[in-house]
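INPUT
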Amino acid sequence: MGRKRKRIVRTKPIPTLPTVFDCPICGTTNSINIDINRKIRTAVIFCGKCKIQATRPVRPIEEKVDVFGDWLDQLVEESERRESIAPLTENPEIGEEEQIKE
Ligand SMILES: [Zn+2]
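OUTPUT
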């Protein structure tokens, strides 16, 4: 009865947070880089493809993935606000009414 070697060392996959992200503006994969400056608590979001750049305040606990998520939320909010000001062409009735008022 030969003793089998016990595998005691298990290689755990270290959970790594993503550091590059897909650009929501130009749609390029892994083109968004985020640079967090902890000293001034500011994060700079930058797309290497379409060169969009955004600056966001960052809390000490936040990581790049959080900054990116916040930025996405902000983009969605902004686009929703824009849509509510300018009626979508999908809804021509509202658009016409708006024009008549003018
Ligand atoms: Zn881009």
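end of record. The pocket of zinc ion is lined by residues 23, 25-26, 28, 31, 47, 49-50, 52 (CB under 6 Å).
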